[in-house]
Design goal:
The structure holds two protein chains of two kinds. By secondary structure, chain A is α/β, with parallel strands linked by helices. Helix content of chain A is 40%, strand content 26%. Chain A has one domain: Glutaredoxin (3-Layer(aba) Sandwich), CATH 3.40.30. In chain B, strands 1, 2, 3, 4, 5, 6, 9, 10 and 11 form a nine-stranded mixed β-sheet that branches. In chain B, strands 12-13-14-15 form a four-stranded antiparallel β-sheet, covered by helices on one side. In chain B, helix 7 packs parallel to helix 9. The two termini of chain B are 33 Å apart. The chains are: A alpha/beta, B alpha/beta.
């Protein structure tokens, strides 16, 4: 899975995605090196858990989604289950830690 | 197929004190010969500094940045020796580097054979009960440096160097000549190992010489008939253990030069002992199936300007060229002789290289890359650039055109580095339970008294006094006493081609370059964090 296959969410898309998917949304900035690395990590997570849904929110384009999801910094991962953001994790993590975060949420 | 590996580690061997690395006045004929027979890497950098993280990366093949600094080997780490277990490979560690012996650090784990030579640096307390009869400490300490240090940190603080020098001289008074110096004794044991090892099996030998680390006490110091070959007309004292501190006001330029020349003479002694080992390798025919790697864990700051950015000994977390750039020479059958390899290579590349040569294959956890493809001409690049640093104080990046250093802000306190770099991960309860290390607790009491006296004497001392010893046993795990975490306030950018030793910061003139390098550095650190 290449990075471009991650679905980019806008404000309306965010709400409907959360309501209809179990997975991880990454809040990122285009030129942030840590965000770039975390998108690569998510690709590795997808290989290990093919059924996991993944999406992205560009924090600079959609600051209102940041506020709605209570996200202040990037990169932040939001674990989405049962129609809600269950947990958030900010920073850089390896695939093992990311999977553990998602499973625990 | 019987493929063996010998790694020869010389601690604190600065790359530009080796002939084949461009030094035209030092005598290192055996290192130069090794480079002619094999390949030398011109751009080898240690990632995590200093002694312990450098070795951890080399044994595990994993970067220590951005996770940890001076910490024990973890049970999750997989070392070369661990991987040799259960295979027809005999493993041996022959060493005098006290950091492998640090209690609870576990770096000797997994080796079949161990030989430790007592006495170097942190292990000098092994001789603390021997009366000092034959030497006078003041013959090895310059009065002007004591006065200079006392002005800065108080008289009692200045007397610290007497203790460190005395403990060294207590053991040195029994020596008869260069065959008693650590590097000679350690290499002798390594030669004995080679002569007795089962040649029907493979072996992995790691020889770890703490020389040319200070005390810089080469033959000309103890042989009355000798003059230092690199400074024969010098009339002052031989300061074998200078104050670990910023040198301004402590030593004259002539004294600093002589200290460096004593270091250089010790490098030549190390070279001579490498020659002893290599003659044995040749005599036994091991050169036909054995990979020999000569490497160092870091260089050494030794004075002003390009010699050390004003610093003597490694008591600041500053990953400048003189510390981070290392010599790395590899010789083995099938490797084209005389290669000068420009590719960037790093300390974690050692483990996968050794494992591939032994036929084990690199462990999937290893982040370093085997150097065998580049040595065999199958590729010309290992890494695009190098990184280096002290967790958690500094990160740096080295490219063809630039070097860039990012300083992570901290309080710069003396005890901070002792506590969070050197001792943070150690449970030292066993020391209290067993009464400590030798006369350790007596020394703690004495040190506390000195510290209080220094505080009364001079307020500056309250910030800088070398509280190297503490009741929790912290001093056992530290490297050079009195290390301070102080770092410059602003990041630095240097023109690597014209200013390799980083003397003129050109960040303000090149903000775009600086930003690009900082982003590359952040991305690399981030990748390591995520892998």
């Amino acid at each position: 899975m290449s990075d471009t296959e991650l679905m980019n969410l806008d404000t309306a898309g965010f709400k409907s995605w959360v309501a209809s998917h179990d997975g991880i949304i990454i809040f990122h900035k285009k030129l942030c090196p840590h965000c770039k690395v975390m998108r690569t990590v998510l690709a590795k997570v997808k290989i290990q858990i093919p059924e996991i849904a993944l999406a992205t929110v560009d924090s600079e384009e959609y600051p209102e989604i940041m506020a709605e999801a209570s996200v202040e910094h990037v990169p932040t991962l939001c674990a989405v289950k049962g129609g809600q953001v269950q947990d958030r994790q900010t920073g850089v993590f390896n695939p093992k830690e990311t999977i553990a975060f998602y499973k625990k949420a | 197929m019987i493929n063996n590996v010998i790694v020869v580690m010389f601690d604190s061997l600065q790359f530009n004190y080796v002939g084949c690395y461009g030094n035209d006045w030092i005598k290192t004929p055996n290192m130069d010969r090794l480079a002619r027979e094999g390949a030398m890497f011109e751009n080898a950098y240690v990632e995590g500094l200093p002694t312990v993280p450098a070795r951890r990366a080399m044994h595990t093949g994993r970067f220590t940045l951005p996770f940890a600094g001076w910490v024990p080997l973890s049970s999750e780490d997989t070392t070369i020796a661990d991987l040799c277990w259960g295979r027809p490979i005999d493993t041996a560690l022959v060493f005098d580097c006290p950091m492998y012996r640090l209690p609870k650090f576990g770096y000797t784990r997994g080796f079949d054979k161990l030989w430790f030579t007592h006495g170097h640096e942190a292990d000098d307390y092994f001789y603390e009960k021997d009366p000092l009869i034959h030497y006078n400490v003041m013959d090895f300490v310059e009065e002007n440096s004591v006065e200079g240090y006392a002005k800065r940190f108080g008289q009692k603080g200045a007397e610290y160097i007497f203790g460190e020098t005395s403990n060294y001289l207590r053991q040195r008074q029994y020596w008869n000549g260069e065959e008693d110096r650590y590097v000679h004794r350690t290499m002798t044991k390594a030669i004995e190992y080679l002569e007795t090892v089962d040649r029907n099996k493979q072996f992995f030998l790691w020889v770890d010489s703490f020389d040319p680390h200070e005390p810089w006490d080469p033959p000309s110091v103890y042989d009355p008939d000798m003059k230092c070959p690199y400074d024969p007309d010098y009339k002052g004292k031989d300061v074998v253990l200078p104050y670990p501190e910023m040198v301004e006001g402590l030593y004259t330029d002539e004294q600093l030069h002589h200290i460096r020349m004593l270091y250089a003479e010790l490098v030549t002694l190390c070279d001579k002992n490498l020659g002893r080992l290599m003659r044995t390798v040749r005599r036994l025919g091991l050169d036909e199936n054995t990979l020999v790697i000569m490497v160092s864990d870091h260089g050494e700051p030794m004075g002003k300007g390009e010699h050390g950015h004003g610093l003597m000994r490694k008591v600041r977390p500053w990953p400048y060229e003189e510390l981070a750039h290392i010599p790395l020479i590899i010789r083995g059958p099938g490797i084209e002789p005389g290669q000068k390899i420009k590719s960037y290579v790093q300390s974690p590349d050692i483990a996968p290289t050794v494992c591939e040569w032994l036929g084990i294959g690199a462990h999937p956890d290893m982040q370093g890359k085997s150097l065998l493809p580049v040595l065999k001409g199958e590729t010309d690049k290992v890494h695009d650039f190098c990184i280096s640093g002290y967790y958690p104080y500094s990160w740096s990046i080295y490219t063809d055109d630039w070097s860039y250093i990012h300083w992570v802000p901290n309080t710069g306190a003396v005890d901070k580095m002792s506590k969070d770099f050197y001792t943070a991960n150690i449970d030292s309860d066993h020391l209290l339970a067993t009464g400590g290390k030798g006369m350790f607790h007596e020394k703690v009491a004495a040190q506390k008294e000195l510290m209080e006296a220094a505080k009364l004497e001079n307020n500056v001392a309250q910030e800088h006094y070398k509280e190297g010893i503490s009741v929790d046993g912290a001093a056992q795990w530290t490297c050079t006493p009195g290390s301070s975490s102080a770092v410059p306030e602003k990041d630095e950018l240097y023109d690597r081609k014209n200013d390799p030793f980083q003397q003129k910061n050109v960040l303000d003139e090149n903000p775009d370059v600086a930003k690009k390098l900082f982003d590359m550095l952040r991305e690399r650190i981030s990748e390591l964090r995520a892998s």
